[in-house]
Amino acid sequence: MKRFLSRLLSGMLMVLAFVNVANAQQVLRIITWKGYIPKELQEKFEKETGIKLKITYSNNEEMLAKLRATRGGGFDLAQPSADRILFAAKKYKIYQPMDYTKIEAKNIKPTLLKATKDISGGYAVPYCFGTTGLIVNKKYAPDANDWSDLYNPKYAGHIAYRLKRPLLIGVAFAMGYNPFKLYNNTPEYKKMINNVAQKLIDTKSYVYAYWNSGDQQREFAKSGKVWVETGWDGIGWNLHKENPDIDFIAPKSGALGWIDTFAIPKRSKNVEGAYKFINFMLKPENAAVFVNHERYQSGSNGVEKYVKKEIKADWGRTFDKKNLENIKWYPALPAACAKIEAEALERIKAAASR
Amino acid sequence: MNILEISSVSKHFDEVRVLEQVNISVEEGEFFSILGPSGSGKTTILRLIAGFLYPDEGDIKINQKSIKNFPPEKREVNIVFQNLALFPMMNVFENVAFGLKRKKLSKETIKKEVAKMLKKVGLNGFEKRKIDELSGGQKQRVALARSLIMKPKILLLDEPLSALDKKLKEQMMLELKLLQKDFKTTFLYITHDQSEAMIMSNRIAVVNEGKVEQIASPFELYNYPASPFVASFVGENNRFEVKDRNQESVITENGWKILLTSPEKKEILKNRKVSQMFIRPESFVINPKEKEVLKGKVKTILFDGPHTKIFIETEYKDEILVNLKRKINGLKEGDTVSLGIKEDEIRLF
Amino acid sequence: MKSDCSKNRLLLIYGLIVVGWIFMLIVLPHTGLFLSSFTNDDGKFTLANYLKFFNQKIYYKTFLYTFFNGILIAFFSFLISMPLAFFLTKNIPKKVSNFLLTILLIPLGVGELIVVYSWMVTLSDNGLIKHSLQILGIDVPKLLNTPFSMTLGFVYISLVFMLLPIMQSLENLDNCLVEAALDLGASKFTIIKRIIIPFAMPGIVSGTIMVFTMVIGDFLVPNILGGKSALWFTEIIYNNFLTTLNWNLGSAFGFLLLLGSVFVIWLLIKITGQQYEKVVK
Amino acid sequence: MINGLVSKRYQASVFVFTAFFFLFWLLPLFVISILAFNNADYIGFPFKGFTLDWFFGSGNRVGVFHDADLLQALFISIKTALLVSAVSLFIATAAVLYFEKAKSRFKDFLYYLSVSPLIIPGVILGIALLTFATTILYFFQDHSSIDLSDYLSPGFWLVVIGQISFVTSYSMLIVQSQMKKFDKTLEEAALSLKASRFEVLRYIVVPYLKPSLIKAFLAGFLISFSNFNTTVFLVGSDPTLPIYLFSQVKYNLTPVVNAISFLIIFTITAFAFLNFLFGKE
């Protein structure tokens, strides 16, 4: 028994020792999106600086939730979308203002940097941007070109989307609203969202399935069962390479433009490391690795030099001048709107499909 | 010299009083039994001595020193439990050595002592045996060895023989008595079986409902019980409710009038209230040569080797038990017999 | 009066450990949850969180949907467990039944996530079932993300929690009782209804409680296997905590879920006339 | 066995039912195990040939053994489970001894509380612990210079603390079922042989409980290792394996998930059968 007890005890001590060893090295804990830090860049950064990266994959909502529970602790660097920063920084005080003097501004596209500063209220630096639009299989749905095709009876049973806020915003545009103008008019905004939700509930039976991940987006499109789905440009372009029938389409009423950023949580334990990492990732040659991999647009100035030719072509193919001007960039999202949307999304999810 | 003195001890659990003003003293080297039916409080007395319980009132002394507030490990007593409580995860050696190890004796001493003890109880060579590989009698001896090796001032035995079959029980009674003589240790034996107590003990305390009824030698208990309870609990007895009495006779509730002539009985009838009468089965004489006091009809005869039990329905419709030594003199069920009584063996309360 | 245990200092240590665990890790957190459910964003008292539940159709509808499914799935589990439990305890040798039981327990050890994921793959459009049927030229409707797949997943993960308590009850059933009933001319139906089911009742009730609470508190199955309309109450709680950051509303919903499940358990015990102590064990 | 009194037809039908049942039972695990070796970049069928890439690949296809994130999640899960099951076992043993000995008036009340995590939906336990920990964390941050972020904000330690809260209940029941068979006179015998209370615990009680202690440790390990519903609210930058796999399934599904599933299924199955063959119970 003595042996059993002592073995148990020593086992526990060993575990504790492991925990301590893990803490000893200098670490940078990042919460980000899957794919934003390619393995190649991670290894390069760790070798250059000796700082070990600890990466947690997440999305906008969970990022906020995690940082809220810790009051901006637990992570040293986050990558939220620009429009999700301001109210969280104000209300929950989870981010620290960005010290732009520590950023190598020459490596960032100036207009994008300014836009990000404005939208985030001075809490963030842009990393990449992209659009949400439609991924369409031209073979089956040659005419699909707007958000309204997500409830077009012609494609019933072959429609997929992610039940998240971009869907509501896109459909709102298609229905003739300008949701961003209503951001500060809560009652009107609520009315609009209710109308959008009703539309989606009425047409729920057209939906093949909801997707949750880029993978599902890809799989649905590839299977031939889904003809029209919401999607991210990078994924659409990737699919186009494999199957020319499938492509990303900027909806007639406007693709939704997002900027994903770097923001430093309030209780970051490695602020220095965070700045180092931001500057590292925005170096053109590094940013290009990411672009070549994921096909998103980088915020890095001069990245084009290193980007593969066919990738450069994507953007131009989708966004002619008209489409480009029509991109609806997300302004900072007020908290009240987020709640209204969440309730609407739950309502759509719970509705029986007729 | 008294090795153990229990004075005015009371104990209750919640609202129930299980012991009331108990006084017992045990002499050194004695084989002392506490006898009582289940629920009488005898086990409580044992647990009070062992230190698993503490008295509410009164005092317990060992060698004139109060141990009332000592925890079990500070008391110089050991217990042999009813189910023996041998440690199943240890072998015979480890069981017997357990107490010595707690005393932090050296390994060699322990080994020597245990070997000596096992030899004494006739278990040498059994050291490595597991407990569940032993027979009932062997387990019994391990339990005794395990306690005796501690050289207790008093060895407490909590009905250790109750689980054994009759043959083995009788054999173990003898062994216990011999061991006790051999070790000269004071044994305090708890039992509900009066024959065990009678056979082995020097003295017996009979307890009932938390009170001590009588403390005496087995002979005295049997022949001169101090209370109706002792009279009916120790040995077999015929009991009669007394409805009425006068100077020289008592009348039972069924109307049997029995004449009592000896001066001793007259004395009692004169000075005391009488409500019960006890007559031992062997105090009856069947078809006596002189002085018939009662008539009856034989109902059942139970032959049991050395003894014969005869159930007789008397003329007053009492059912009585009569013991005969072997000879039944041609009695048959249904016979009418006359009965005589040895008057000095009648007990009145 | 001096306690007989007063000298046992170890008992005090045990007591402190137990009370520490129960209060720090069970009682206080739930009290905190309770208080938080009556608080608004600024830390003031409010009933709004609960009112919201009763005012918004979606919330109480989802609540009822979740509870209804919990009971339904407990019932399905019971239907499968009962004959299986009887077979395992009464019809085959102990050794074989232990072997089968080992197989039954494997998914439990593997863990819910992997098990649910495995079903997702098995039922998906290019999973084993649809794929092999397609090779044979049979086209079947979508299996994954339908009420069917969700029910299947739930029954799969909760079955042993119904089976084991029933088996435990049946093990105590003396075969003589069944034989005596047969001897007295009882039909098979009567035996099942009058002897076997009543005997298994404590097991059935505790199994139902386990399955029910597991199902209504689950997140993975409706999320991964559930259909387009399978909004689970836990998902609303999850969303409130991890999406909309409305912790107070989430707390209120969590508390309602707890209250609801306690109520159902209480009702179940009352209806079946079981004793709480027996069932809990 | 009640075989003599049932008809051949009954036996046959029960046998068929059971056979189908076990086929159904193992189907998903079987499917995943096969797909773990599929030489294709997608998750499902068709089967394109055998490969070990999803285990050992390090180039285009990153296999389990080269997937640093996955290995880290696995390592964290093991670390968490070891710590949780050890601490839970310690508390559970103290609890069992306490409930065995104590004469307190609150004993029954405490006992019901201590088994309550078994019927509280895991999600509720998760949010209750999260809310409570956060409250304490904020309190210390606001009123003192003590920062308990490392322990009370979502992360490794909060997961450990949270899992202890309910794993202890399971461990307690396992240890208790053996303690119930404990002969109390063994303890008194040891006391009578001059053992101290602690020596009684060490030489008599703990050796007696050892089989159940080991069982409880293993059960605690598995429960902690596979928990999702509670952990999801408590996890921070170190996801446990189920949490990590869930995010993979949701956002980044590759056949590596099949491979790690296969490894776990294989380990558990092997362990279960070894236990069946060589274990006593």
If you had to describe this structure to a student in words, what would you say it looks like?
The complex is a heterotetramer of chains A (354), B (349), C (281) and D (281). Chain A contains 14 helices and 12 strands. With 354 residues, chain A is an alpha/beta fold. In chain A, the strands form 2 sheets. In chain A, strands 4, 5, 6, 7, 8, 9, 10, 11 and 12 form a 9-stranded mixed sheet that branches. The mean pLDDT of chain A is 85. With 349 residues, chain B is of the alpha+beta class. Chain B has 2 domains: 225 residues, Rossmann fold; 113 residues, Nucleic acid-binding proteins (OB fold (Dihydrolipoamide Acetyltransferase, E2P)), CATH 2.40.50. Chain B contains 9 helices and 20 strands. In chain B, the strands form 4 sheets. Chain B has a 6-stranded mixed sheet, sandwiched between helices. In chain B, strands 13-12-11-14-20 form a 5-stranded antiparallel sheet. A 5-stranded antiparallel sheet of chain B has the order 15-19-16-17-18, with no helix packed on it. The relative contact order of chain B is 0.11. By secondary structure, chain C is mainly alpha-helical. Chain C has a single domain, classed as MetI-like fold (Orthogonal Bundle). The longest helix of chain C has 35 residues. Chain C is globular and about 70 Å long. Chain C starts with 8 loop residues before the first helix and ends with a helix. Chain D has a domain of 187 residues: Orthogonal Bundle (MetI-like fold). Helix content of chain D is 72%, strand content 0%. In chain D, helix 8 packs antiparallel against helix 9. Chain D starts with 7 loop residues before the first helix and ends with a helix. Chains in contact: A-C, A-D, B-C, B-D, C-D.
